[in-house]
Amino acid sequence: MAGWRNFPVRILVLAIISFALTITVVACSSNDDDDVEIEPTPTAVVTLTPEPTATPEPTPSPEPTATATATATPEPTPEPTATVEPTPEPTPESEHRSTLTGEPVDEPPLRPIAVRIDNSPQARPHTGLVEADLIYESPTEAGITRFLALYQTSAPEVVGPARSARLMDVDVAPMHDAALAYSGASIGVQDRLWQRGLPLLVLEGNASSAAWRDNSRSAPHNLFTSIPALREVADSQGWNRLAENTPFTFGDTPDGGVAGAGVDIPFASGSVEFRFNEETDSYDRIVGGVEARDAVTDEIVSPRNVVVIWAPFFVGDIAPNTRGEVSNDVDLYGSGNAWVLRNGERYEVEWRRDEQSDPFRFYDQSSGEEISLAEGKTWINLLPLDMSAQAVD
What we know:
Layout: H1 2-29, E1 96-97, E2 104-105, E3 113-117, E4 134-139, E5 145-151, H2 169-175, E6 179-182, H3 187-196, E7 200-202, E8 211-213, E9 223-225, H4 227-236, E10 258-259, E11 262-267, E12 270-277, E13 282-287, E14 290-291, E15 305-311, E16 313-315, E17 328-330, E18 334-342, E19 345-353, E20 361-364, E21 378-384, E22 390-392
Protein backbone atom coordinates (compact mmCIF):
# COMPACT_ATOMS: atom_id res chain seq x y z
CA MET A 1 0.00 0.00 0.00
CA ALA A 2 2.99 2.46 0.70
CA GLY A 3 4.39 1.99 -2.86
CA TRP A 4 1.16 2.99 -4.40
CA ARG A 5 0.98 6.09 -2.28
CA ASN A 6 4.57 7.35 -3.39
CA PHE A 7 4.11 6.65 -7.09
CA PRO A 8 2.47 10.00 -8.06
CA VAL A 9 5.12 11.96 -6.13
CA ARG A 10 7.90 10.34 -8.07
CA ILE A 11 6.23 11.09 -11.36
CA LEU A 12 5.86 14.71 -10.32
CA VAL A 13 9.56 15.01 -9.37
CA LEU A 14 10.70 13.52 -12.64
CA ALA A 15 8.42 15.83 -14.56
CA ILE A 16 9.88 18.87 -12.77
CA ILE A 17 13.47 17.74 -13.47
CA SER A 18 12.66 17.14 -17.13
CA PHE A 19 11.10 20.58 -17.41
CA ALA A 20 14.11 22.24 -15.80
CA LEU A 21 16.53 20.55 -18.17
CA THR A 22 14.51 21.60 -21.13
CA ILE A 23 14.58 25.22 -20.01
CA THR A 24 18.31 25.08 -19.56
CA VAL A 25 18.94 23.66 -23.00
CA VAL A 26 16.81 26.26 -24.63
CA ALA A 27 18.60 28.99 -22.83
CA CYS A 28 22.01 27.78 -23.93
CA SER A 29 20.94 27.45 -27.49
CA SER A 30 20.01 31.10 -27.70
CA ASN A 31 23.59 32.33 -26.82
CA ASP A 32 25.58 30.20 -29.31
CA ASP A 33 26.36 31.02 -32.89
CA ASP A 34 23.82 29.78 -35.37
CA ASP A 35 26.52 28.03 -37.39
CA VAL A 36 27.60 25.93 -34.65
CA GLU A 37 25.63 22.83 -34.63
CA ILE A 38 25.13 21.52 -31.28
CA GLU A 39 24.05 18.01 -31.06
CA PRO A 40 21.18 17.71 -28.74
CA THR A 41 21.81 16.07 -25.52
CA PRO A 42 19.77 13.03 -25.38
CA THR A 43 17.06 13.19 -22.77
CA ALA A 44 17.08 10.40 -20.44
CA VAL A 45 13.78 8.80 -20.38
CA VAL A 46 13.15 7.26 -17.10
CA THR A 47 10.60 4.60 -17.16
CA LEU A 48 9.15 4.02 -13.74
CA THR A 49 8.23 0.52 -13.15
CA PRO A 50 5.73 0.42 -10.36
CA GLU A 51 6.81 -1.65 -7.49
CA PRO A 52 4.72 -4.67 -7.08
CA THR A 53 2.24 -4.11 -4.38
CA ALA A 54 1.38 -6.93 -2.16
CA THR A 55 -2.16 -7.91 -2.51
CA PRO A 56 -3.73 -7.09 0.79
CA GLU A 57 -4.61 -10.11 2.78
CA PRO A 58 -8.26 -10.04 3.61
CA THR A 59 -8.77 -9.34 7.20
CA PRO A 60 -9.97 -12.58 8.57
CA SER A 61 -13.45 -12.22 9.88
CA PRO A 62 -13.69 -13.56 13.35
CA GLU A 63 -15.32 -16.88 13.43
CA PRO A 64 -18.73 -16.46 14.99
CA THR A 65 -18.56 -17.79 18.44
CA ALA A 66 -21.37 -20.17 19.13
CA THR A 67 -23.33 -18.56 21.88
CA ALA A 68 -25.54 -20.82 23.90
CA THR A 69 -28.98 -19.27 23.64
CA ALA A 70 -31.11 -20.07 26.62
CA THR A 71 -34.24 -21.67 25.20
CA ALA A 72 -37.20 -21.56 27.52
CA THR A 73 -38.40 -25.02 28.31
CA PRO A 74 -42.07 -25.11 27.32
CA GLU A 75 -44.44 -25.63 30.18
CA PRO A 76 -46.02 -29.07 29.98
CA THR A 77 -49.63 -28.94 28.82
CA PRO A 78 -51.69 -29.93 31.82
CA GLU A 79 -53.78 -33.01 31.39
CA PRO A 80 -57.47 -32.12 31.33
CA THR A 81 -59.04 -33.22 34.55
CA ALA A 82 -62.66 -34.01 35.10
CA THR A 83 -64.49 -31.38 37.10
CA VAL A 84 -65.34 -32.89 40.42
CA GLU A 85 -68.79 -31.78 41.43
CA PRO A 86 -69.09 -31.33 45.16
CA THR A 87 -71.16 -34.05 46.72
CA PRO A 88 -74.33 -32.41 47.98
CA GLU A 89 -74.89 -32.74 51.65
CA PRO A 90 -77.73 -35.18 52.31
CA THR A 91 -80.85 -33.46 53.50
CA PRO A 92 -81.18 -34.40 57.13
CA GLU A 93 -84.33 -36.33 57.87
CA SER A 94 -86.81 -34.49 60.00
CA GLU A 95 -86.96 -35.52 63.63
CA HIS A 96 -90.76 -35.19 63.49
CA ARG A 97 -93.01 -37.99 62.28
CA SER A 98 -96.69 -38.36 61.64
CA THR A 99 -98.43 -40.32 64.36
CA LEU A 100 -100.72 -41.83 61.70
CA THR A 101 -98.32 -42.73 58.87
CA GLY A 102 -94.92 -42.87 60.57
CA GLU A 103 -93.51 -40.70 57.78
CA PRO A 104 -91.21 -37.70 58.41
CA VAL A 105 -92.98 -34.33 58.57
CA ASP A 106 -91.51 -30.83 58.63
CA GLU A 107 -93.25 -29.67 61.79
CA PRO A 108 -94.44 -31.41 64.94
CA PRO A 109 -97.72 -33.06 63.88
CA LEU A 110 -101.04 -31.62 64.95
CA ARG A 111 -103.79 -33.77 66.39
CA PRO A 112 -105.72 -35.45 63.56
CA ILE A 113 -109.12 -34.41 62.28
CA ALA A 114 -111.43 -37.43 61.92
CA VAL A 115 -114.39 -37.12 59.53
CA ARG A 116 -117.36 -39.52 59.37
CA ILE A 117 -117.97 -40.26 55.66
CA ASP A 118 -120.93 -41.81 53.87
CA ASN A 119 -120.37 -44.92 51.73
CA SER A 120 -123.78 -45.64 50.29
CA PRO A 121 -123.82 -46.04 46.49
CA GLN A 122 -125.34 -42.53 46.17
CA ALA A 123 -122.31 -41.08 47.97
CA ARG A 124 -119.80 -42.32 45.40
CA PRO A 125 -117.40 -41.22 44.09
CA HIS A 126 -115.92 -39.70 47.22
CA THR A 127 -113.86 -36.55 47.49
CA GLY A 128 -110.72 -36.24 49.61
CA LEU A 129 -110.78 -39.87 50.72
CA VAL A 130 -107.60 -40.57 48.78
CA GLU A 131 -105.71 -38.04 50.94
CA ALA A 132 -106.66 -39.51 54.31
CA ASP A 133 -103.75 -40.87 56.34
CA LEU A 134 -105.82 -43.55 58.06
CA ILE A 135 -109.28 -44.93 57.29
CA TYR A 136 -111.52 -47.25 59.28
CA GLU A 137 -114.31 -49.05 57.44
CA SER A 138 -117.03 -50.89 59.34
CA PRO A 139 -120.59 -52.05 58.65
CA THR A 140 -123.56 -50.17 60.05
CA GLU A 141 -126.84 -51.68 61.22
CA ALA A 142 -128.08 -52.02 57.63
CA GLY A 143 -124.87 -53.67 56.49
CA ILE A 144 -123.74 -50.62 54.52
CA THR A 145 -120.29 -49.51 55.56
CA ARG A 146 -119.20 -46.08 56.76
CA PHE A 147 -115.73 -44.58 56.90
CA LEU A 148 -113.90 -42.74 59.61
CA ALA A 149 -111.17 -40.87 57.71
CA LEU A 150 -108.35 -39.26 59.69
CA TYR A 151 -106.27 -36.37 58.34
CA GLN A 152 -102.96 -35.18 59.72
CA THR A 153 -100.33 -34.84 56.97
CA SER A 154 -102.76 -33.46 54.39
CA ALA A 155 -105.53 -30.87 54.37
CA PRO A 156 -107.86 -31.31 51.39
CA GLU A 157 -110.21 -28.43 50.69
CA VAL A 158 -113.12 -30.77 49.97
CA VAL A 159 -113.96 -33.94 51.90
CA GLY A 160 -117.15 -35.94 51.81
CA PRO A 161 -119.96 -36.65 51.72
CA ALA A 162 -120.06 -36.45 55.52
CA ARG A 163 -122.54 -38.40 57.65
CA SER A 164 -123.51 -39.05 61.28
CA ALA A 165 -121.33 -40.33 64.10
CA ARG A 166 -121.41 -43.96 65.26
CA LEU A 167 -120.87 -45.55 68.65
CA MET A 168 -117.46 -46.95 67.65
CA ASP A 169 -116.21 -43.36 67.26
CA VAL A 170 -116.23 -43.09 71.04
CA ASP A 171 -113.28 -45.53 71.09
CA VAL A 172 -111.54 -44.93 67.75
CA ALA A 173 -111.29 -41.11 67.86
CA PRO A 174 -109.51 -40.97 71.25
CA MET A 175 -107.27 -43.87 70.18
CA HIS A 176 -105.65 -41.37 67.79
CA ASP A 177 -106.27 -38.19 69.84
CA ALA A 178 -108.52 -36.92 67.03
CA ALA A 179 -111.09 -34.15 66.91
CA LEU A 180 -114.27 -35.69 65.46
CA ALA A 181 -116.24 -34.03 62.62
CA TYR A 182 -119.70 -35.38 61.74
CA SER A 183 -123.08 -34.22 60.52
CA GLY A 184 -125.09 -35.26 63.57
CA ALA A 185 -125.88 -38.27 65.74
CA SER A 186 -128.69 -40.00 67.51
CA ILE A 187 -129.38 -38.75 71.03
CA GLY A 188 -127.77 -41.83 72.55
CA VAL A 189 -124.58 -41.56 70.46
CA GLN A 190 -124.37 -37.81 71.04
CA ASP A 191 -124.69 -38.26 74.80
CA ARG A 192 -121.93 -40.91 74.77
CA LEU A 193 -119.62 -38.60 72.82
CA TRP A 194 -120.22 -35.75 75.26
CA GLN A 195 -119.65 -38.01 78.23
CA ARG A 196 -116.28 -39.04 76.81
CA GLY A 197 -115.29 -35.37 76.59
CA LEU A 198 -114.15 -35.57 72.96
CA PRO A 199 -113.49 -32.43 70.85
CA LEU A 200 -116.57 -32.49 68.60
CA LEU A 201 -116.92 -30.57 65.31
CA VAL A 202 -120.62 -30.79 64.48
CA LEU A 203 -121.08 -29.80 60.82
CA GLU A 204 -124.65 -28.68 61.41
CA GLY A 205 -123.78 -27.11 64.74
CA ASN A 206 -120.59 -25.45 66.01
CA ALA A 207 -118.72 -26.26 62.76
CA SER A 208 -121.43 -25.17 60.33
CA SER A 209 -119.03 -22.56 58.89
CA ALA A 210 -116.95 -25.48 57.59
CA ALA A 211 -119.83 -27.29 55.84
CA TRP A 212 -121.97 -26.88 52.72
CA ARG A 213 -124.37 -28.84 50.52
CA ASP A 214 -123.59 -29.84 46.93
CA ASN A 215 -126.89 -29.36 45.10
CA SER A 216 -125.73 -31.59 42.25
CA ARG A 217 -126.25 -34.54 44.61
CA SER A 218 -129.30 -35.63 46.52
CA ALA A 219 -129.53 -35.22 50.30
CA PRO A 220 -128.38 -36.58 52.67
CA HIS A 221 -125.46 -37.66 50.49
CA ASN A 222 -124.35 -34.14 49.60
CA LEU A 223 -122.85 -32.60 52.76
CA PHE A 224 -119.17 -31.68 52.37
CA THR A 225 -116.52 -30.15 54.57
CA SER A 226 -112.96 -28.82 54.42
CA ILE A 227 -110.01 -29.82 56.59
CA PRO A 228 -108.50 -26.29 56.68
CA ALA A 229 -111.91 -24.88 57.66
CA LEU A 230 -112.32 -27.53 60.35
CA ARG A 231 -108.89 -26.67 61.74
CA GLU A 232 -109.96 -23.04 62.01
CA VAL A 233 -112.98 -24.07 64.06
CA ALA A 234 -110.83 -26.39 66.19
CA ASP A 235 -108.36 -23.57 66.71
CA SER A 236 -111.13 -21.24 67.87
CA GLN A 237 -112.09 -23.86 70.46
CA GLY A 238 -108.50 -24.42 71.62
CA TRP A 239 -108.45 -27.95 70.19
CA ASN A 240 -105.92 -27.52 67.40
CA ARG A 241 -102.89 -28.53 69.44
CA LEU A 242 -100.01 -30.94 68.85
CA ALA A 243 -100.82 -34.64 68.65
CA GLU A 244 -100.45 -36.67 71.82
CA ASN A 245 -101.45 -40.13 70.61
CA THR A 246 -99.20 -43.18 70.54
CA PRO A 247 -98.53 -44.18 66.92
CA PHE A 248 -98.66 -47.61 65.36
CA THR A 249 -95.41 -49.56 65.12
CA PHE A 250 -93.78 -48.83 61.73
CA GLY A 251 -90.77 -50.62 60.27
CA ASP A 252 -89.21 -52.68 57.50
CA THR A 253 -90.93 -55.69 55.96
CA PRO A 254 -91.02 -58.42 58.63
CA ASP A 255 -90.18 -62.06 58.06
CA GLY A 256 -92.87 -64.73 58.02
CA GLY A 257 -95.25 -63.26 55.43
CA VAL A 258 -96.96 -65.14 52.62
CA ALA A 259 -96.83 -63.62 49.15
CA GLY A 260 -100.29 -62.56 48.11
CA ALA A 261 -102.08 -60.33 45.62
CA GLY A 262 -104.62 -58.94 48.07
CA VAL A 263 -107.91 -59.61 49.80
CA ASP A 264 -111.65 -59.71 48.99
CA ILE A 265 -114.27 -58.61 51.56
CA PRO A 266 -117.98 -59.23 50.84
CA PHE A 267 -119.56 -56.14 52.44
CA ALA A 268 -123.29 -55.73 51.86
CA SER A 269 -122.74 -52.26 50.39
CA GLY A 270 -120.55 -53.78 47.69
CA SER A 271 -117.84 -56.38 47.44
CA VAL A 272 -114.51 -54.76 48.24
CA GLU A 273 -111.20 -55.84 46.76
CA PHE A 274 -107.69 -54.67 47.53
CA ARG A 275 -105.11 -55.58 44.87
CA PHE A 276 -101.38 -55.16 45.32
CA ASN A 277 -99.84 -52.71 42.84
CA GLU A 278 -96.15 -53.55 42.40
CA GLU A 279 -95.38 -50.17 40.81
CA THR A 280 -96.68 -48.18 43.77
CA ASP A 281 -96.08 -50.81 46.47
CA SER A 282 -99.63 -50.19 47.66
CA TYR A 283 -103.09 -51.75 47.43
CA ASP A 284 -105.61 -50.41 44.91
CA ARG A 285 -109.18 -50.37 46.20
CA ILE A 286 -111.94 -51.75 43.97
CA VAL A 287 -115.65 -51.62 44.91
CA GLY A 288 -118.18 -53.68 42.98
CA GLY A 289 -115.61 -54.17 40.22
CA VAL A 290 -114.96 -50.42 39.89
CA GLU A 291 -111.76 -48.72 40.97
CA ALA A 292 -112.34 -46.32 43.85
CA ARG A 293 -111.16 -42.96 42.50
CA ASP A 294 -111.36 -39.42 43.79
CA ALA A 295 -114.24 -37.38 42.34
CA VAL A 296 -111.96 -34.38 41.73
CA THR A 297 -108.45 -35.70 41.06
CA ASP A 298 -109.39 -39.15 39.65
CA GLU A 299 -106.57 -40.59 41.76
CA ILE A 300 -107.15 -44.17 42.85
CA VAL A 301 -107.43 -44.96 46.55
CA SER A 302 -104.35 -47.08 47.25
CA PRO A 303 -103.06 -47.42 50.85
CA ARG A 304 -99.65 -48.88 51.73
CA ASN A 305 -101.16 -51.11 54.42
CA VAL A 306 -104.43 -53.03 54.49
CA VAL A 307 -105.50 -54.51 57.83
CA VAL A 308 -108.47 -56.82 58.42
CA ILE A 309 -109.57 -57.04 62.08
CA TRP A 310 -112.18 -59.43 63.39
CA ALA A 311 -113.90 -58.15 66.53
CA PRO A 312 -117.19 -58.68 68.42
CA PHE A 313 -120.04 -56.48 67.11
CA PHE A 314 -123.15 -56.05 69.25
CA VAL A 315 -126.18 -53.81 69.66
CA GLY A 316 -125.24 -50.77 71.68
CA ASP A 317 -126.75 -50.16 75.11
CA ILE A 318 -128.25 -46.81 74.16
CA ALA A 319 -131.79 -45.75 73.49
CA PRO A 320 -133.02 -46.19 69.91
CA ASN A 321 -133.24 -43.10 67.75
CA THR A 322 -136.52 -41.36 66.88
CA ARG A 323 -137.17 -43.96 64.18
CA GLY A 324 -136.66 -46.78 66.66
CA GLU A 325 -133.32 -47.75 65.15
CA VAL A 326 -130.62 -49.19 67.39
CA SER A 327 -126.90 -48.61 67.00
CA ASN A 328 -124.19 -51.17 66.48
CA ASP A 329 -121.13 -51.09 68.69
CA VAL A 330 -117.87 -53.03 68.54
CA ASP A 331 -115.52 -54.23 71.25
CA LEU A 332 -112.00 -53.11 70.33
CA TYR A 333 -110.30 -54.09 73.58
CA GLY A 334 -108.43 -57.29 74.35
CA SER A 335 -107.24 -59.35 71.40
CA GLY A 336 -108.41 -61.14 68.29
CA ASN A 337 -107.47 -62.40 64.85
CA ALA A 338 -106.32 -60.14 62.05
CA TRP A 339 -104.49 -59.98 58.74
CA VAL A 340 -101.85 -57.43 57.89
CA LEU A 341 -101.10 -56.86 54.21
CA ARG A 342 -98.01 -54.84 53.29
CA ASN A 343 -95.37 -54.92 50.53
CA GLY A 344 -97.14 -57.77 48.73
CA GLU A 345 -97.01 -59.99 51.83
CA ARG A 346 -99.82 -61.20 54.06
CA TYR A 347 -99.34 -61.89 57.76
CA GLU A 348 -101.76 -63.81 59.97
CA VAL A 349 -101.55 -62.00 63.27
CA GLU A 350 -103.17 -61.42 66.63
CA TRP A 351 -104.28 -57.86 67.37
CA ARG A 352 -103.99 -56.53 70.93
CA ARG A 353 -105.23 -53.38 72.63
CA ASP A 354 -105.72 -52.69 76.34
CA GLU A 355 -106.31 -49.00 77.00
CA GLN A 356 -108.43 -46.31 75.33
CA SER A 357 -105.35 -44.41 74.15
CA ASP A 358 -103.58 -47.56 72.88
CA PRO A 359 -103.29 -48.14 69.15
CA PHE A 360 -103.62 -51.63 67.73
CA ARG A 361 -100.52 -53.82 67.98
CA PHE A 362 -100.08 -56.87 65.77
CA TYR A 363 -98.16 -60.06 66.60
CA ASP A 364 -97.28 -62.99 64.38
CA GLN A 365 -99.44 -65.97 65.38
CA SER A 366 -96.55 -68.40 64.93
CA SER A 367 -93.48 -66.58 66.21
CA GLY A 368 -95.10 -64.06 68.54
CA GLU A 369 -92.95 -61.33 66.97
CA GLU A 370 -94.54 -57.90 66.53
CA ILE A 371 -95.49 -57.17 62.93
CA SER A 372 -94.91 -53.57 61.94
CA LEU A 373 -96.74 -51.50 59.35
CA ALA A 374 -95.08 -49.88 56.35
CA GLU A 375 -94.73 -46.13 56.56
CA GLY A 376 -97.63 -44.55 54.71
CA LYS A 377 -101.41 -44.66 54.56
CA THR A 378 -103.35 -47.49 56.21
CA TRP A 379 -106.85 -48.87 55.62
CA ILE A 380 -108.37 -50.86 58.51
CA ASN A 381 -111.42 -53.04 57.87
CA LEU A 382 -113.41 -53.94 61.01
CA LEU A 383 -115.39 -57.16 60.48
CA PRO A 384 -117.85 -59.03 62.72
CA LEU A 385 -116.55 -62.37 63.95
CA ASP A 386 -118.95 -64.28 61.68
CA MET A 387 -117.96 -62.43 58.51
CA SER A 388 -115.41 -63.96 56.19
CA ALA A 389 -112.74 -62.49 53.96
CA GLN A 390 -110.84 -64.21 51.20
CA ALA A 391 -107.08 -63.96 50.76
CA VAL A 392 -106.03 -63.64 47.13
CA ASP A 393 -102.71 -65.30 46.29
